[in-house]
Design goal:
Elements lengths: L1 H16 L11 E5 L4 E7 L4 E16 L2 E17 L2 H6 L9 E12 L4 E2 L7 E14 L4 E14 L4 E16 L1
Antiparallel strand pairs: 1-2, 1-9, 2-3, 3-4, 4-5, 4-6, 5-7, 7-8, 8-9
């Protein structure tokens, strides 16, 4: 797994150093997410890369032999994003405003094992996932935001457990400021 993370970092470094001819990312995007409530701030690192930070919540639910389970948990996420299709979107007369483009990213998430609301409690006090994702982000005229990302990662917890984990991110919200 360490080799995968090192390879991902090298790939992002190479891509960001070779992307000087693209449109530049917008800096300082603050948005609120409504599907999984939270705040998100994205700021530019280079012409085509950003760091996206999110403090919010995650939702878990399921059914077991003793009934239904539900929980809302505090989550902190960070993504180092490389936006790769600004030029193609501009050539097709599509907007790139507010970083409306596709990206690849190195994603990291930390989540509490104790819910804010609900009856699910995990054995571990916290757990996390780190791995590469592909995503797309779109902002629409009213400031409505859609952000989807998919990937696979290395999961871990403070008990020393590690595992393969899919990464699925769906965010709906509004731009508060830029």
């Amino acid at each position: 797994m360490k080799k995968l993370l090192l390879l991902s970092f090298c790939l992002f470094s190479f891509l960001s150093s070779n992307a000087q001819n693209q449109a530049s990312v917008e800096d300082g995007l603050l948005s609120v997410n409504i599907l999984t409530p939270g705040l998100e701030y994205e700021f530019g690192v280079s012409n085509s890369t950003t760091l996206d930070l999110r403090a919010g919540s995650g939702i878990a639910f399921g059914t077991g032999s003793s009934g239904d389970f539900f929980g809302i948990f505090p989550v902190f996420s960070a993504q180092y994003r490389y936006y790769y299709n600004f030029k193609n979107r501009i050539e097709k007369n599509k907007t790139v405003k507010n970083n409306s483009a596709n990206y690849i990213a190195l994603s990291g998430n930390l989540q509490s094992g104790k819910p804010i609301i609900g009856n699910i409690e995990y054995t571990a006090d916290y757990f996390g996932v780190v791995g590469p994702v592909w995503g797309l982000q779109r902002y629409y005229g009213s400031g409505f935001k859609l952000d989807l990302n998919l990937g696979a990662g290395y999961g871990f917890d403070e008990l020393g457990d590690s595992y393969f984990s899919p990464i699925i991110g769906i965010r709906l919200g509004w731009l508060l400021s830029n």
